[in-house]
Specification:
Shape: globular
Bound molecules: zinc ion
Number of domains: 1
Helix content: 40-55%
Order of helices and strands: HEHHEHHEHEHEHEHEHEHH
CATH architecture: Alpha-Beta Barrel
Distance between the termini: 27 Å
Number of strands: 8
CATH topology: TIM Barrel
């Protein structure tokens, strides 16, 4: 059994989590999803052409974890970083994958644990809480940030974090909730990540003023409204960023500098 300090030393990523160039970074996408992976090169090239130079990809089950070491993805090592987790509401996620995630931590393949959390659309809340706590413990042991997926359960998540993991650091992914929820979660060391469903102006203004924010596609999910496509593409990160700049009446260069600094702050 490793003690937690030794685990922390072991965890230091083999290559730095740092992205090589000062570009836009998609903090949440699913590159191992077949819809993206079958055209990986085109997806990445098109995004690169729009100035997107980093992708944090979330792997959520055994077959997706295998992509992390696959040559097809390794070829794009410069651009891709990985998180892995047992999702509360994804049919392919399984509790039996826990040891595989811990192995990836030991092998220093991950920059975060996720997406994990609570999802009120399904009724297995006891299991969700149990697996969430186990993974928060894992993230703490390996000194890794957490990517949270939360649907209709923000207050439950708040209680769990306040009582058990008040020092947790990470991201609330795809955030689009109320001002009150933004305020209470701002008590933690957590950033807010925006996707195509952009929050109300007052919420957006509050989060931009606080300064700890990120941008994501969640591709192939979360298609921008009015898009004729059947699934979301990596290049659509620019749609999210431009829409936010317009809604908040701010300059994209300010958003770019902030998101890059925030990535460095969280992932090193
Ligand atoms: Zn996702």
């Amino acid at each position: 059994m490793l003690n937690s300090d030794f685990k922390k030393i072991l965890q230091r990523p083999e290559s730095s989590a740092r992205f090589p160039s000062f570009g836009w970074i998609d903090t949440h996408c699913h590159l191992s999803d077949e819809r993206i992976s079958k055209n990986l090169e085109t997806e990445i090239n098109e995004a690169n052409q729009s100035g997107i130079t980093g992708f944090i990809s979330l792997a959520l089950c055994r077959e997706e974890f295998e992509c992390i070491k696959h040559t097809k993805f390794q070829k794009f090592n410069k651009f891709i970083r990985w998180c892995a987790g047992i999702h509360p509401n994804y049919e392919k996620s399984s509790e039996t994958d826990f040891d595989l995630i811990e192995n990836l931590c030991i092998e220093k393949k991950l920059i975060g644990i996720g997406e994990i959390g609570l999802d009120g659309r399904v009724t297995n809340s006891e299991w969700q809480q149990k697996i969430l706590l186990k993974q928060l413990e894992l993230a703490t042991n390996y000194d890794l940030p957490v990517i949270f997926h939360t649907v209709k359960k923000y207050y439950d998540l708040y209680k769990i974090l306040k009582n058990n993991f008040p020092k947790i650091r990470g991201i609330l992914h795809g955030f689009n909730s109320s001002l009150e929820i933004s305020e209470i979660f701002s008590r933690f060391d957590l950033g807010f990540s925006f996707k195509a469903s952009i929050p109300k102006t007052e919420v957006l203004q509050y989060i931009l003023k606080r300064g700890y924010y990120f941008f994501e596609t969640d591709a192939p999910y979360a298609i921008p409204p009015d898009s004729p496509d059947e699934f979301n593409h990596l290049k659509n990160l620019m749609w999210v960023i431009n829409s936010i700049a317009e809604k908040a009446n701010t300059d994209v260069s300010i958003l770019k500098e902030r998101q890059y600094g925030n990535i460095r702050n969280l992932f090193g």
